[in-house]
Amino acid sequence: MPGRWIKIGGYTVIAVFSAMFILGFITGETDVMSALFKKGGTIAEIGAIAAFGLWIVRLLLRQLKKRKFEFSKWVQVVFKLLREHHTMIGWAAFSAALAHGSYFFLQANEEWQRVYSGLATLIGFAILVTVGLFLDKRAKGRKYQTFKKVHQAIAIIFGFALGIHLLVG
User: Fold this and answer.
1) Count of the separate structural domains present in the chain
2) Residue 71 pLDDT
3) Which end of the chain is more exposed for a tag (fewer CB within 10 A), N or C?
4) In contact, 95 and 18? CB cutoff 8 Å
5) Per-residue pLDDT for 127 more than 90?
6) Whole domain around residue 24: which residue ranges?
């Protein structure tokens, strides 16, 4: 049942930020739009940090399981729920990041450090999503393991780029 709500929420976020992406091109820069797209960037940050946190928790749980550590049932349920919807969370975060990044990239802005760090982060995110999509749809067997490692390596690079963008901005 909670999985259904995650899907509904994910599709809603994707639809809203797709509409914002189009609206940003139509309206141009206004104070309201600027504030709205900054919120979009915050939502994208939360999604990216959640995905990274999920990966760290997975590594931690794997090590604890080897040591016969007992987990409470709710930790397992929450982790499984988030893991099942990793792709949806990623797409929702990417749609928010794309709307946020495209809006601020296209506006006349004097703060080029923010723009360039954001553009580099968005490109890294796009590569991460592309490799993840290929991994999800086509990779099997040894290819799957290879693409999974590539996806994880790109995620680390993306994490550093996001950190730099957040520090500059």
Assistant:
1) 1
2) 67
3) N
4) yes
5) yes
6) 2-168
